[in-house]
Structure formats: C-alpha cells, structure tokens
Specification:
The complex is a heterodimer. Chain A is of the alpha/beta class. Chain A is built from 18 helices and eleven strands. The radius of gyration of chain A is 24 Å and the shape is globular. Mean pLDDT of chain A is 89; it is low at 1-31. Chain B has one domain (2-300): MetI-like fold (Orthogonal Bundle), CATH 1.10.3720.10. In chain B, 73% of the residues lie in helices and 1% in strands. Chain B is built from 14 helices and two strands, in the order H-H-H-E-E-H-H-H-H-H-H-H-H-H-H-H. Chain B has helices spanning 2-5, 9-18, 23-58, 76-82, 85-118, 123-135, 138-148, 155-160, 170-197, 202-210, 215-243, 247-252, 262-272, 276-300, and strands at 60-61, 71-72. The two termini of chain B are 20 Å apart. The model of chain B is unreliable at 1-17 and 309-314 (pLDDT under 50). Classes of the chains: A alpha/beta, B mainly alpha. Chain A binds chain B through residues 12, 15, 19, 75, 78-79, 82-83, 86, 104, 107-109, 190-191, 242-243, 245-246, 379-380, 382-383, 386, 393, 417-422, and chain B through 38, 42, 45, 61, 63-67, 80-81, 84, 86-87, 151, 163, 165, 168, 255-257, 260, 265, 268-269, 271-275, 278. Chain A: Keywords: Signal, Transport. Chain A: This is Sugar ABC transporter substrate-binding protein. Chain A: Belongs to the bacterial solute-binding protein 1 family.
Chain lengths: 422, 314
C-alpha cells in the first residue's frame, strides 16, 4: 500500500518518514465506494465459493463477501488468524474457527459476543453438542457451521457384528489375525491432534475427565487412566498397522481402502472416498458407533467441525453477523453437506431427502452427536493438545500411572500457560 | 575476501589519530561522526530496540490469550526455561547438529574449494554447478528431501529404507536433517574457503615442493596455516548459522520425535503457544548462546571479526 510519493525529497528523510508514518500511509489505501466488503477467512473448501456467491446475491448490494482461503492444516490456519488478530488487523471480518479455538479467541478478546437477535438465530434448531462448542463461560461467541464425528468402520465380510467395546474389538482382530485374514485396527496414531481425539473418545467413553469443567485444573481422573490403559493395550496387542505412529486421517483411510485392515476409526469423509477408491472394499464397508470402554456403555465421540466468529476488529460487524448467518443457513448447510461432506449442525437438515442419499450413516452420526464428547474447553487448548500428543506418543510406550502423573503436572502448567511447550 | 585481507586503511587511520590531531583533522572527524549518525540511528531503531524489547518481554508473564494476567515476574521465566527438559533436549539436539554439520561441511567444503580453485577447464561452469544447492530456497529443498524420504513416494526411502518411514524415527530424522543441512550449505563454506585459497601464494607451494614436501605436507604445513584466518571466519559464520537451524527441521519433522532445535521450540512457544514471556526468554537465551559462540571464536581462536582491523588477538 503506497500513496503517490512526492518527489524532490531527500531519500534519507523519506525513509525516516516512512518508518514513522507507515500506519498512517496504510489508511490512504482504503476506498469507500460500493457495498462494504466482508472478508471471510476459512480453510479451503471446494464448494464454499458457491455458497459465498449465493449469499452475495441474497445480500442484494448490502455487503459483498470475499472468500480468502486459509492454509489447509489447522495449525497453519490458527497461526495466520492469531498473528493478524494480535496485530488488530481490521481486514478480517468473518473467521472460520475450529471448534477447539472458541475459548482461546474469546478470552483474548479477538471475537465478538453474539447477543440479542443474532444469538437467538445462531442457536435455532442447532444440535446440543455443536452448540456447546460455540460457547465460552456461558456466552455465545460463534455460530456453528458444520460438525463432525468419527465412526467405527468395519468390513462386514470379516466381521459379523460390530464390536461394542475396545476389548471385544481387539479380540475379534486377534482371531482374524490367527486365521490369516486382514485384521488391523486402524486409528490416527501420529503425534498430532488426531491422537488426542482418539484419547479424548476413550476418556469420555470411560466416564473420565482430563481437565476440570471450568478449564482451570488438570484432573486426569480414574477414567482418564483407564483410557490410557486401553490405548496401551491396543498398541501392544499386535493388531495395529506398522505405520500406526505415522498415520493421520488419510493414511488410515488409504490403508483400509487397500484392504489392510478390518476396522478403522475415521471421519465420514472416508465413505465417499472409499467408494471412489476401491469399490471391492466399499461393498462390505459398514459403520457403527465407536466402541466403548465398559460393556453396556456405548463409546462417545469427540466433536469436530467449524464455527463462524466475527472479529472484534471488523469495521462492519453488523453486515458480518448477517453474512455469517447466511453462510451457514439450513439451505447452505445442506449444500455443503452434500457437496463437501461436512455434516450439518442444524437438526432439521438431517431430515432432508438429499442428506439421506449422501449420508446413509446419518442416523449413527446423529446418535453420536446427541451425547458427543467435547475436548477440554480452555483458552490454552493449543498447549493442552501439544502436551497430550507428546505424552501419548508413541501409544505403545504409555505407562498408565506414570503417564497420568506426568499429564497432571504438565497439563496444569499448560493450562496456566506457565511451562514450556514441547 | 576483504574481511580476511585486513586492509591497512583502518590501521593507517588509527596511526594518524594516534598523533596530535590538528584542528582540521578534528573537524573532519566530527563530520565523519555526523555522516555516520543517520546509519547508526537506523541501526539502533531496527536492531537495538527489538533486542531491548525482547529482554523486557522476557521479564514478564505475558500470554496473548490471558492479557489480564500480564505482570512483571523478574527472572522467573529464565528459571522455568532453564529447568525444563524440553529446552535442554532441544539445546543438545541443536549443539549436536551444529557440530556434526559444520565439521562435515568443513571437510567437504575444503574439497570443493580445491576443485573450484584448481579447475583448469570450465572453471565458471564448475563454480556455478557447485553453488546450485546454495541458490535453492531452503524450504523448497527441504520439501524435496521430505518427499524423497517419504515411504511409497520417495526414491530415497524406496532405495535405502524400504517399508520403513525414516522420518518417524528420531535418529534417522536427525541424520536426514543433517544431510539436508550439509547439502545446502557446503557450497557457502566452499566459497569462503576458496577466497582463503586465493591467498596462498604459488611461490610458497613451489618452494615447499622444491624442499621435498609431498602434497599432504604442502596442504597441512603451508596451505592450512596461511588459510587459517579464512577457515576461522568460515567456521564462525557457519556455526552461528547452524545454531539457529529452523527451516529444514520445520519442514522435515516439525520437531516431532524429539528433533526440535531451540529455534523450533521458541517458535512453538511464541507463535503457536502465544506465550510472549517464555518465547522472548528463549529468544534471549539463543541470542546469548550465539554471542558466546562469536566471543569464543574471536577471542579464543583469534578469528578476524568482520570489520576489525587485525586478525583478532592471538
């Protein structure tokens, strides 16, 4: 951004002035003609531009949304947003946030609270789990865009009935291995958020807690220790894929698709992907709720997905709230669900016929969403996640009591942002 | 290189000012200071201020996510970092990588410098080809190393580690990081050493050969001593650079499996963790470590610091 420079000045002076007046110079780049531009920052999503165009048409000249793609990986997205918000960048309006960032952005004062009419509109007909992910300290800071839960996918040609618990699943896999059939249980075991999600599923299924409800204390109770034991048992039972410690979502999907496993725990995107990738495996690919830890207790699944929040530094908050609501209205949630494979957060959308076609597993998703598990809610979630993935990796090296003790001290530091992050 | 040559102009200037300066000389001196002042002020603004600000930040508890809890905590952040196992792990990884890569680079760089120096035909071509790795952006090169070592898709992984994922193993990862680093910066080392080689007079070598010194003796007894200042400068530059290693690790492993360097750890705490206090503390510690390295090189080994009048003090 540069104003037409006046000539005839000495260079040194100009440089000095430029250094001091950089913020002032920036101001002359802004032009106030036409409808206000609402800058949307969201992860790359193939058909989101269509939704944006649709909303721009509906806005009829009141505002114009411009979609800026953030990096593909969650860390990269967060880094760009955080860096610019910390610098009070006014060019950000609507932010696509991962569900785990709400507390952090709200506590730092980077996103606006939703109040009055917009708050009511944001909550209308939204499933309880996703709705909770948009709140912090009882206030609403975002509107739900889409949700996500993992399911247990299994091969019906190898397994008659989906296992209800992890120990049952491990036994079935061991039996398959003895018969020389594909037997591996595939999960995301690399040292990253995916491993934390698996652990969080197990903790919730065992009725445990990692962090206290108000997000201030590291609890790591009995259930959390039992979850560690399950993860350790699984990793040392001989039913894992050799690449467990390297597997992220797509690695797991590809291994299952290649026929290298009997089970996988993964997000619903694997359904259309496997259909296109290997019809032979797809024919026998069935789904079920995640296995639990205790018999009679169904497994609980961690909520993923994205929310829209409005930047505190936005110059057009009114239009931004309106734009965010439009981008995720029932019609657009349905469109994104069918086109981009992101499950809706508005309950009535699940009853649409197009959804039934695109999501044969929608009832299982809904069931899981009803008692879904949240990840620890704290502004320091990034710290918590880093500490957890470091301590859980590699899963075979977990020593339940000792790992739990380390978790308690290191998580407490992480929650207070006191210690050093690995 | 002019750094090594130690032009005598500076010495002359000092000699002159040593005597009683006349009024004209004094005016000249004042003018010189005035002419330097703008540059010095800009330097203070762009380097002095950030350094001072980092030190100030490192004495505070300051996390962007908890702006209300900002307070002055004295040296507490230093206690936290210096008693933390992740910091020391990263520190020793950094030291190890620095020592190994600089040592390998020195040997390879010397060989390359000899080749470039002695090349009879296609001298320009040889020098250009040698410098290609240095001309490639580190991140781009790091990505190609990463793909090369990825199972299934990478040609190096398929050739040397079939069915394994070398980048998920700690020592294999560190070796690959060192390899990428050596590949990338050996040409730089070679360039600096070649400048030193140009200093070795041919007559000296011929005289030594006449006295019956064989090639190895000529190398160790004649070339190395004459080149010593150039070698030390090259080592100093590379050590300072290597200690701040970041991009190769960032792309290759992201610091997983205990491969974090101190820079990666700082980045994780500062940019990802948004903990300005702890992050600034680490930056200051890296700054101190780099300062110690430079001090040791200049005062103990007698490296000629760029801009100093002599080859340091021996």
């Amino acid at each position: 951004m540069e104003c037409p420079a006046r000539r005839g000045r000495r260079r040194g002076a100009l440089l000095g002035v430029a250094l001091l007046a950089a913020p002032a110079l920036a101001a002359c780049g802004a032009q106030d003609s036409g409808p206000p531009t609402i800058n949307l920052y969201h992860a790359p999503e193939q058909n989101l531009q269509t939704v944006v165009d649709d909303c721009n048409r509906e806005a009829a000249g009141r505002y114009r949304i411009v979609y800026h793609k953030l990096p593909r990986d969650a860390d990269g997205q967060r880094e760009q947003l955080v860096r610019r918000l910390a610098a009070r960048d006014t060019e950000l309006d609507v932010l696509g946030l991962d569900t785990t960032w709400t507390a952090e952005f709200a506590e730092a004062g980077w996103i606006r609270e939703w109040t009055g009419e917009t708050k009511a509109a944001a909550a209308r007909d939204v499933l309880p789990g996703p709705l909770e992910s948009a709140r912090w300290h009882g206030k609403v800071y975002a509107v739900t865009k889409n949700t996500n839960v993992q399911l247990l996918w299994y091969r019906s040609d190898l397994v008659d009935q989906p296992p209800r618990t992890w120990s049952e699943m491990i036994q079935v896999a061991q039996r398959l291995a003895e018969q020389g059939k594909p037997s591996a249980i595939l999960i995301t075991g690399a040292q990253y958020e995916g491993l934390v999600v698996n652990y969080n599923n197990l903790v919730a299924s065992a009725g445990g807690r990692i962090v206290s409800e108000d997000g201030t204390r590291a609890v790591v109770d009995d259930g959390a220790v039992r979850a560690l034991r399950v993860l350790k048992d699984f990793a040392t039972s001989g039913v894992t894929n050799p690449a467990l410690e390297n597997h992220k979502e797509d690695g797991v999907r590809l291994a299952f698709q290649a026929g290298d496993g009997a089970f996988q725990i993964n997000w619903p995107f694997v359904h259309p992907a496997t259909k296109a990738g290997n019809p032979d495996v797809f024919r026998n690919m069935k789904w079920a709720r995640l296995p639990g830890v205790d018999p009679g207790q169904p497994g609980r699944a961690t909520i993923g997905g994205a929310n829209y929040a409005i930047s505190s530094y936005s110059r057009h908050p009114g239009e931004a709230f309106e734009a965010a609501l439009c981008l995720r209205n029932p019609e657009h949630q349905k469109f994104s669900a069918v086109k981009d494979g992101v499950p809706p957060t508005i309950e009535s959308v699940y009853d649409e016929p197009e959804i039934a076609e695109a999501y044969p597993m929608k009832e299982t998703i809904r069931e899981e969403l009803k008692d879904a598990a949240l990840r620890p809610v704290t502004p320091a979630y990034q710290n918590v996640s880093t500490v957890l993935s470091t301590l859980l990796s590699p899963p075979s090296a977990i020593d339940p009591e000792r790992t739990a003790a380390r978790m308690r001290t290191e998580l407490q530091d992480a929650l207070e942002s006191k210690g050093v992050l690995p | 290189m002019s750094i090594v040559r130690t032009p005598s102009a500076a010495e002359e200037a000092r000699g002159r000012t040593g005597r009683k300066p006349s009024a004209g000389k004094r005016a000249e001196r004042r003018l010189a200071w005035l002419l330097c002042a703008p540059a010095a002020l800009v330097m203070v603004a762009v380097t002095g201020y950030p350094i001072a600000y980092s030190v100030w930040l490192s004495l505070q508890r300051y996390d962007l996510r908890f702006p209300a809890q900002r307070e002055f905590v004295g040296l507490q952040n230093y206690v936290i970092v210096l008693s933390n196992q992740y910091w020391w792990q990263a520190f020793w990884v950094t030291v190890g990588l620095t020592v190994v890569t600089v040592a390998v680079e020195l040997v390879l760089g010397m060989a390359l410098a000899m080749i470039m120096h002695r090349a009879l035909v296609g001298r320009g071509l040889v020098r250009t080809v040698t410098l290609v790795p240095y001309g490639i952006v580190t991140v781009v090169a790091a990505f190609s190393w990463r793909f090369a070592w990825s199972p299934n898709t990478g040609y190096l992984a398929e050739t040397f580690a079939q069915g394994e994922a070398p980048l998920t193993d700690r020592f294999a990862s560190l070796a690959i990081i060192a390899l990428a680093e050596v590949w990338k910066t050996t040409p730089f080392m070679a360039l600096l050493l070649m400048a030193g080689l140009a200093l070795v007079p041919d007559e000296l070598l011929r005289a030594a050969a006449m006295d019956g010194a064989n090639a190895w003796q000529r190398f160790t007894k004649v070339m190395i001593p004459v080149m010593k200042p150039a070698i030390l400068v090259a080592l100093l530059f590379r050590t300072l650079d290597a200690f701040r290693i970041f991009d190769n690790i960032f792309v290759l492993t992201g610091g997983a499996q205990g491969t974090s360097s101190v820079s990666i750890l700082t980045y994780n705490n500062l940019i990802r963790g948004l903990n300005l206090g702890i992050g600034a503390t680490m930056s200051v510690l890296i700054f101190l470590a780099v300062a110690v390295i430079a001090f040791v090189f200049i005062k103990v080994f007698g490296t000629a610091a760029p801009g100093s009048d002599r080859e340091g003090r021996r």
